[in-house]
Amino acid sequence: MMTENAFSLMVDRLDIIELTAKYAYRLDTRQFDSLMELWSDDSPVFDEEGFGLGKFTGKDEIRHHFEVDIYGQMENLCHMTVNHVINEILESRASGNCHVFAQGDVRAGGTSRATAYYKDEYVREDGVWKFSSRKVIPLTRPEVGTFEFPAGQNPFDQ
Questions:
Q1: Which ranges of the chain have pLDDT less than 70?
Q2: How far apart are alpha carbons 142 and 93 in whole angstroms?
């Protein structure tokens, strides 16, 4: 028989996995208002420094990065997340990771493909799990089509 605590932990794990799925869907379908609802209200961080794309703090910076930096160069995107591991769940905090395969059409031509994993920190706000931090860590060298890294910031040219 499952204890109430074991049941609660299972529900929390499923809620966190669904959070990552909502992130991919809302980003790929450009639902920026609802995408920002998945982030903590307390200075969340999105870190793509591993791809030379910067580190962004707060919902306004994160949203600007997605709308301008990413979709300014990408026409379409598709993120597929798998291999979820929730490392630890506390009362209102959790951590975990999952792999991502991302592919998109570059506006200037070509296709971009990347594999990475997300190193995530989650926080429960008003009973709902949200991202407090999401760090993207490359697993393989990306295929970048004609995507333009900011001058001197392509980490794979170093």
A1: 146-158
A2: 32
